Amino acid sequence: MKDLHSIPKPAVLHPQEGVFQCSGLPEISGDGCFHQVIEVVRDQLAHDVPAASPGSGSEKRIICTKALDMEEEAYHLQIRPEGISLTGASERGIYHGLQTLRQWILSAYKDRGLSLPCVAIEDYPRFPWRGFMLDTSRYFYTVPFIKKLIDALSLHHLNVFHWHLTDDQGWRLPVDAYPLLTEIGSKRQEHRFKGRYTGGFYTEGDIRDVVAYAARRQVEVVPEVDLPGHASAILAAYPGLGCTGGPYRVEDRFGIFEDVLCAGNDGIFELSSAVFDTLATLFPSPYVHIGGDEVWFNRWEACPKCQRRVQEIGLSSPRDLQSWISMRLVRMLTERGKIAIGWDEVLEDTEQCRLPKELVVMSWRGTEGGKAASKRGHKVIMTPNTQGCYLDYRHVDDPEEPGQLFLTSSVYDAYSMNPVQGIHSEQAAAIMGGQGNLWSELIYAGKFAEYMIFPRICALAEALWTPLSLKDFDDFSRRLQVHQKRLDMLGIVQYRGSLGGV
Question: From start to end of 35-155, where are the E strands?
Fold first, then answer.
């Protein structure tokens, strides 16, 4: 059964008698509502197995059928000697089932033929939010790389691509009303080469292309623009939006900087309005991430405009301005039919400006922020840097390994992540799921990024999909040996050292 070592592990798998054999690859057909999904998988297999094309083994078929009594992402897969049947209620379920088959085909197609043991599978996800975040601000990644990554994520039933588009080191989103955001804010000095500049931005065409590509692979693209902190690129383009008026620059250093958007300047909401209009036009996802993390209050405490704002709205201190800004941004997105997400810092200093319940909290500083948010009635996405979700950390504590110094996040850590661990049952329903994050301060190229992402994202995918009762790290490690050969076939660079563990 080694060829059926899929990742993530299916919820229910029953071996059956017999073997499915096919010369070439079987034709994929099915109900008309699955036409687009079938075409995508045909193209994937044509790329994966260039020696054959779907339908070259025309005597056998994969038949996709709609079933109304199943959850949206669930699928049933039956491999018999005479053919393969796949049922699902939606394109998402059918796509996940075809991706499981795609994994097996990558392993089992040999000598111009396919041989698979017969099996019956019933499969479904543990959590609805199974995500990955790519920081494209610190270093700019090309559209072809992003597409390659999305395709690989979807192979593992991950369904959210969180696109971090803005930060101190670069603004990547075109906004017609604020052209200097990309003209000035998208370029910074390259700290590795003195006197040179690096950066870029995604055009509207690029963004629509990525969003459509992801949608065909049942991946939702969730954009993030960081407000009101991590704003150096904004301020370099529009210095009047800062407390001091500058001078500012697009940062080539990495860290947290004291210059943030001026809370006493209504212009920051005019800019936010234009940005949100752009996001609403380009991204069909109901979610927009507004950042809200790592805001320093030094400038607000010294700024006359911010001091006046504190008095006008009756706040106790400049620190309370962040929750006031977050509250306004959430409402602005609500008016556009969008749901805001914020990093867990948005929970702080909210005694006077209570955050709307519709704000989703992404817990990154461990899990405490997520626990607190669920108690307050917020939906939560867990991505704790303490539990294997930060993929810019070293795989192991080895000076030869790339990644953040003195910080490690092993494959075992990623596999052990449990979004509802320590959450009372009455709050567990608020946990939407989790995701892995790749911050790119030290990750300046796509091949380098792949090494940091894989195979830890494989472990996270199983932690978020497979029933908790079926998780077994030793079993996962054995399956991973087979699976990494598949990723090799897809041209993905991978870490292959110690997986960690107890």
Answer: 61-66, 75-80, 83-88, 109-110, 113-123, 129-135
